[in-house]
Write a structure and sequence with these properties.
Rossmann fold, about 15% strand, alpha/beta
Length: about 325
């Protein structure tokens, strides 16, 4: 469902303003080289798992809340989230001293639920169907306040775009950037940020093969539903469909999306832990798996490690089920 607003490209002025606005509240995360053996491409990791909420979502949430008119902000804020956007919004709301409500999945990882509550959010746990409907309709029965969309928002995307600026500043010879895709707000923001400084960098999304509507949409040339959707440990990425409004945002600035198998994602989780001592959640490992999957030829490649909010017992189980390479 579209928001009804026209899609307008986000320019460098808005991105730089967002960077100034959120400075001091977010970490300028490191960009480190992934040291791997053999003929693997040159891959760098943008470690957004090191943000205070262990997710990139803090950037967009802080900017979106700061941009609300005072009267709307004072009404309290709410969002729909599997966990990371909810943490970002709760963090931003706490700084502003306003209430925050999150409509979340009752199947969300316990660590994400606990951390949203710890940040002061009121949680409403629902089925995936009800959660997805709330995302599309931007309303939920009994929830008041100002809705902050977790990805289809110019202000949220402008905050995310600050990642792209940092990537180009820290690796001027970057050729390809890969970011995981849930709703598309991270990928869109990174693309705007990178291409505002270096127009010809290749930009790709990464999705779990069990939930890859953007890859399907690029193949079809139109926003498409993914009818074979299956839930998995990659709870922060993938989906049942590509939102038409996000397709209009993504199509002009993104080169495609790579569907990654769950086994490849597990191997990337283990590789990150063994070679860099980085703990990533499933979505956070997608871009690394895509970078090493043999489909990208233009290097250096930057893989955005979007988050690290995963239960340690789940993480240990997943990496024990595979070998890194």
């Amino acid at each position: 469902m579209s928001s009804g607003r026209p899609v307008v490209p986000i320019g460098i002025e808005a991105i730089e303003a967002a960077r100034h606005r959120i400075a001091g509240m977010v970490v300028r995360t490191p960009l480190i080289k992934l040291e791997i053996d053999g003929d693997a491409p040159e891959v760098y990791l943008k470690l957004e798992n090191l943000q205070p909420i262990n997710s990139f979502k803090l950037r967009g949430a802080l900017n979106a809340v700061a941009m609300l008119p005072p009267e709307r902000r004072s009404q309290g804020v709410w969002t729909v989230s599997a966990g990371n956007a909810g943490q970002g919004l709760a963090y931003a709301a706490r700084l502003e001293g306003v209430a925050c409500t999150v409509v979340t999945l009752r199947t969300a990882p316990a660590t994400k639920l606990q951390r949203m509550r710890a940040l002061g959010a009121r949680l409403i746990e629902v089925s995936h169907e009800a959660w997805w409907e709330a995302m599309e309709r931007r309303t939920f029965p009994g929830v008041d306040g100002t809705f902050v969309h977790p990805f289809d928002s110019d202000d949220f995307i402008a905050g995310n775009a600050t990642i792209g600026l940092e990537i180009v500043e820290d690796l001027p010879n970057v050729e390809t950037v890969i970011a995981p895709v849930g709703g598309g707000g991270l990928l869109t923001g990174v693309a705007y940020g990178v291409r505002s400084r270096k127009a010809h960098v290749h930009i790709f999304g990464a999705e779990p093969a069990t939930a890859a509507p953007l890859a399907l949409s690029f193949a079809a040339g139109k926003p498409s539903a993914f009818t074979q959707w299956q839930p998995s440990f990659v709870d922060g990425a993938g989906g049942k469909s590509t939102f038409p409004q996000m397709w209009e945002r993504l199509r002009p600035i993104v080169d495609g999306s790579i569907a990654v198998s769950l086994d490849e994602t597990k191997r990337a989780l283990r590789l990150l832990a063994e070679r860099t001592r980085v703990i990533a959640e499933g979505a956070g490992a997608l871009a690394v798996a895509a970078a090493l999957g043999g489909k990208i030829v233009d290097a250096p490649i930057v893989a955005v490690v979007s988050g690290g909010n995963i239960e340690l017992s789940t993480f240990c189980k997943l990496i024990s089920e595979t070998n890194a390479g």
